[in-house]
Design a protein that fits this description.
eight-stranded mixed β-sheet, alpha+beta, FAD/NAD(P)-binding domain, single chain, nine-stranded mixed β-sheet
Length: 411
């Protein structure tokens, strides 16, 4: 007989990845607990800030099938063209939604808006217990279950679960306690993130601009002149840019980006955070699995971080739904091995591709710089290569889970 505080699945972390998985598992097949320090709607939730998220087309499809896409309303902005260029070089590449037969290659939404959509009525979903404020203090893995010690409000509680899901971010407590091996790459860069207006309408174009001071992404947002800027700069320049007033910062960003999008105006509040690549070489352990940033944290150069994490969610939900429908054990080793085999290639490829892009465009070696410009030009004139790149950027490459294949949303 199972104890009163037993759950089939316990998700530690109610941020974007954890909340997405909770919604995917709702419906009553399993009893699920989410352990989250911040109550729903708490403005202090670090994952739900005003950063702009670039969502791939495949990610939008998954969110649609989780029943949250329509709740984003006017907060979402379509990306119809992706323009890639390098400062001081003539070569460039453009990916266009029309060439791929879709209405948008992806979308840009504020993390805050996506968080609110994911948490809408989540505490009323069948089978979901949202425990907050709550923190995981310790856990022990046994043959048939995991025992967790948590602090829930003012009370200490003991829970048992068949499967522990670590969705607790890049500094994951669960990953550390499981001693899973990781690969790290320190970039000696910081990302400077802010919103700004431009003198010209964005026309739904997302720019990736490689500059001598680091890669720069300019993303269209709701409002035809509004953009999100993500500028990855070396540590020394970070200090200088952080001290500058808005006008001086706008001038520095303009000099690096150019005038393709118009004049930079009305720079908003800037946020600065360090950059590194971290990937768990294995994201499963006995009766435990990592998803999202707990399993992989990427450089923002290609905007793939959340997209990779939502594919973790969709695949895990796929496998768990089948197992639960058959009355099986959600923490079964075979299920976790299947998850690892399914997700390993995508996680490894995206992490390596992102890391390689950072290093490729960070070198000042003149012959390599010339080759980069030529490569962008050749890519722009090679439709098969552009199609392959676009499918990967849209999150539609490889084997897809059911949530990424269905077209009809549910509420």
């Amino acid at each position: 007989m199972k104890p009163a505080d037993y759950y089939d699945i316990v998700i530690v972390g109610g941020g974007l990845a954890g909340a997405s998985l909770a919604r995917a598992l709702a419906g009553g097949l399993a009893r699920v607990a989410v352990i989250e320090p911040h109550p729903p709607g708490d403005p202090g939730q670090p994952g739900f800030d005003d950063r702009a998220l670039a969502l791939a087309f495949g990610t939008a499809r998954i969110l649609n099938n989780l029943g949250v896409w329509s709740r984003l309303g006017e907060e979402r902005c379509a990306i119809e063209t992706i323009h890639v260029s390098e400062q001081g070089r003539l070569g460039f590449t453009r990916l266009r939604a029309g060439e791929e037969g879709v209405e948008a290659l992806g979308y840009v939404v504020p993390a805050r808006a996506l968080g609110q959509a994911l948490l809408h009525r989540i505490d009323r979903l069948a089978g979901i217990d949202w425990l907050s404020p709550a923190r995981l203090r310790a856990f022990e893995t046994h043959a048939t279950h995991v025992r967790l010690e948590i602090q829930h409000g003012d009370a200490a509680r003991t829970l048992e679960t068949s499967l522990l899901v670590g969705a607790d971010g890049g500094d994951s407590f669960i990953r550390k306690q499981l001693a899973l091996p990781t690969r790290r790459a320190a970039y000696r860069q910081h990302a400077i993130v802010c919103n700004l207006l431009t003198s010209q309408p964005h026309r739904h174009i997302a720019y990736e601009r490689f500059t001598g001071n680091g890669p720069m992404a300019l993303l269209p947002m709701s409002g035809e002149h509004r953009h999100a800027l993500v500028w990855s700069v070396n540590d020394a320049l970070r200090d200088e840019l952080a001290r500058q007033g808005n006008d001086a910062f706008a001038a520095a960003a303009q000099a690096a980006f150019g005038l393709r999008a118009g004049r930079f105006q009305q720079v908003g509040e800037r946020t600065v955070y360090p950059l590194e690549m971290l990937r768990a070489l294995r994201s499963t352990a006995p009766r435990a699995v990592l998803i999202g940033n707990a399993a992989h944290t990427l450089h923002p150069i290609a905007g793939q971080g959340f997209n990779l994490g939502i594919r973790d969610v969709a695949v895990l939900a796929d496998l768990l739904s089948d197992t639960l429908a058959a009355g099986g054990d959600p923490g079964d080793a075979t299920l976790l091995d299947r998850y690892e085999a399914w997700r390993h290639r995508d996680q490894k490829w995206v992490a390596r591709a992102t890391d390689s892009l950072v290093r490729l465009f960070d070198t000042p070696f003149p012959p390599l710089r010339a080759a980069r410009g030529l490569g962008l030009t050749l890519l722009d004139n090679c439709p098969p290569a552009k199609h392959w790149l676009a499918r990967g950027a849209m999150g539609l490459a490889g084997r897809l889970p059911r949530l990424a294949l269905k077209e009809a949303a549910h509420e």
